[in-house]
Write a structure and sequence with these properties.
alpha/beta; 12 helices; globular
């Protein structure tokens, strides 16, 4: 079990890592965007250099790391601007990504990595476009072997959303991609229409459905969360009950689900919520309320009911 270590109002990141240790968590997550890393063709000069920071911070904290290397980030294309007119399987795209990926791996030489996802929620951008999926699959087939050779024993894959399970075109395309992946990698944020969260989702059935869709591959839920916003019908108690349901459903499927990374440690700040509204191009109070209340702790650093539930559930299972 991991947690995404989102920051809090006092900017005390060591305290955030301390919270993870309090919850008996051994794994954190980091997302790295290609266009932030490659600042000019063949030049890797991110500012700040989160890879170098992660290489110092996480080993000292005793935390391993899920790494998401982003060319596709949900609906956003995060390639360097001079590459965006090319298809994903273009040899120039592949060569540039391979060089960038090698640089990132070299920066994380002291970190124990548990999972390596090439892309984030790729189905949101690829949609029902079979040609786009074929190009992405050829791209993945070309760049995944480098990561696999450099990171022996680490699961290499490409993260999609659980919405893919109800999209036959995307589901078939993702199954093809999994021929070259070590695991199915999904995000899980269950809610009703327009982010309504009045009803707790059937977590056990959802896990069974995700596992049965890709029976030949283990499932890694690299993001998993539920909001606490009262305007969406949820509450801290419902969020806490979701946490318990996740642990209980995981108990029943642990042999086929080696990893769940919970999202997130803290709620986003109002400024961060506004940034993501602009970034994803999604407007409306409901999205803002949903996105801004996914944390197990409040933005001001105080714990929600779901935080204590998380600590209790993880402790009961003998986590670190």
């Amino acid at each position: 079990m991991g947690i995404s270590p989102t920051d809090r109002a006092d900017d005390d990141f060591p305290a955030v890592l301390g919270n993870l240790q309090q919850a008996h968590i051994a794994n954190a997550t980091i997302s790295l965007a290609w266009d932030d890393i490659e600042t000019a063709p063949g030049v890797f000069n991110p500012d700040p250099n989160f890879t170098g920071i992660a290489n110092q911070v996480y080993p000292m904290a005793g935390l391993s790391l899920t790494v998401v290397l982003v060319g596709i980030d949900t609906t956003a294309d995060r390639r360097p601007s001079d590459l965006k007119s090319r298809q994903w399987d273009d040899p120039v795209i592949i060569a540039r990504f391979r060089a960038m990926q090698r640089w990132v791996i070299s920066q994380l030489r002291d970190v124990r990595i548990t999972a390596w996802s090439i892309g984030n929620e790729v189905d949101a951008l690829l949609g029902n476009d079979n040609a786009a999926w074929r190009a992405w699959r050829r791209f993945f087939e070309s760049v995944a072997p480098d990561a696999r050779a450099a990171l022996p024993g680490v699961a290499i894959g490409s993260k999609a959303t659980t919405n893919i399970l109800t999209n036959p075109v995307a589901l078939a395309a993702y199954r093809e991609l999994l021929n070259d992946a070590d695991a199915s990698m999904l995000t899980y944020y269950p809610s009703g229409a327009d982010y309504n969260s009045a009803q707790l989702p059937p977590v056990a059935q959802d896990f069974d459905r995700a596992l049965s869709a890709y029976p030949d591959k283990p499932l890694r839920l690299l993001e998993c969360g539920f909001c606490s916003a009262s305007v969406l019908g949820s509450s801290e108690t419902k969020q806490a009950d979701f946490v318990s349901a996740v642990f209980q459903a995981w108990d029943a499927n642990i042999g086929n689900m080696p990893q769940i990374d919970y999202f997130a440690a803290h709620d986003f700040s109002p400024a961060a919520v506004q940034f993501f509204i602009n970034y994803y191009g999604v407007s409306g109070r409901n999205f803002a309320s949903w996105l801004g209340s996914l944390g197990l702790r409040n933005w001001n650093g105080t714990p929600k009911a779901s935080w204590q539930r998380f600590v209790t559930e993880s402790s009961a299972r003998g986590f670190r």
